[in-house]
Amino acid sequence: MIVEFLIFGLVGIVTGTMAGLFGVGGGLIIVPVMHFILTSNGLAESLAIPLSIGTALACIIVTSSSAAYSHYKKDSLSIKRFSQLTVGILIGAGFGSSFVISVDSEILKTMLAIFVSIMAARLFINIKMPKASKEPNFLFFNISGGVIGYLSSIFGIGGGRFSVPLLKISGMEMKKAVGTGAACAFPIAVLSSTSYLLLGLNIEGLPDYTIGFIYLPGVFGIVIFSFFFAKVGAQLAHKLNDKFLQFIFAAHLVPVAIYWFLK
User: Fold this and answer.
1) 251: pLDDT confidence band, cut at 50, 70 and 90?
2) How many CB atoms lie within 10 A of CB 105?
3) pTM (2 decimals)?
4) Of 112, 49, 82, 74, the residue nearest 187 (C-alpha)
5) CA-wise closest residue to 71 among 232, 224, 225, 187
C-alpha cells in the first residue's frame, strides 16, 4: 500500500501540472496507472477498466477546479464558451459510462490505444487547425459539448484534448482556450464520475475502499498533490513557448499508447 501511495503521489504531481499547462484532466495517465496497479493485484479486466476510468474522473473534479480557478484569476477563461459547451456536456457525459460497462474490455483497450496514438501523432505532425470564418453559433457549441462529454466519459479524461482544439478553431487564443478547457473538465468529471459510482454499486468482486467504480485510495493519493500542482502548471502555461508545450503534450502520450497496445 505504501508503494501504491508513492505512485499515486507522483501521478498527482504530473497530472496536476498537466492540467494547468494544457487544460486537460490527466486521465490518460491516471487510467493506465490505475489499471496496472489493479490488475497487478489480481482484479479482473472487466472490473479494472471501469474502476480505473471512474477513479480518474473523480480525480479530475479536484484537478480541473484548481486549474480553472488559476486561469480565471489570470483572465484566461471564457465564461461564455464554458456555458455554451456545458449545456451539451451535461447530456453527453452521462451516457459514456454506460458504454464502458457494456463493451468488451479488449475492445476498449484497443480503442484507448488508437485514440492516444492519434492524439500524439496529430501533435507531433503539428497539423494546423483551420479557423472558422465566422463565430460558430450557440447550437454548434451545444452539440460539440455533447460529443466531448460522451467521449471523455468513455476514455476517462477531462475533454481538454477535444475542447482546446475546438476553441482554437472558433478563433480563441491558446491560453484562453486552455483555461476554458480546464473549466469544461469539471462538469464532465462530476457527471461522469457520478455515473460510474452509481453503476458500480452492488457489483461483486471490487477491492476494498471502493464506492461504486471509484477507488478511494487512488483518488485521495492523487488529488492531494494534483490540486496544488495544477496551480503550478497554470503559472508555467503563461511563461513557456506554445511549440514547446505542444511537444511535451505529444511526448507524454507515447508511453501511454505503448502501454495499451501491449496490454
Assistant:
1) confident
2) 17
3) 0.86
4) 82
5) 232
User: Residue 74 carries which DSSP code?
Assistant: T
Which residues constitute the domain of residue 52? Answer: 2-262
Grid coordinates representing 191 are 457527471
Q: What residues have CB less than 8 Å from 198, skipping those under 6 apart?
A: 212
Task: Express each pLDDT in 12-29 by its tens digit.
Answer: 998 888 877 776 778 888
Quote the number of domains for the chain.
1
Q: What is the Cα–Cα distance from 9 to 90, expressed in whole angstroms?
A: 30
- Nearest 10 degrees: CA dihedral of 117, 119, 121, 126? -170
The answer for 26, left when phi > 0, alpha when psi is -120 to 50, beta otherwise, is: left
- Contact indicator for 257, 117 with CB cutoff of 8 Å: yes
Tell me the three state secondary structure of residue 215: strand
64: cell is 480541473
The pLDDT score that the predictor gives to residue 118 is 85
Task: Report the Cα 136 to chain-centroid distance in Å.
Answer: 25
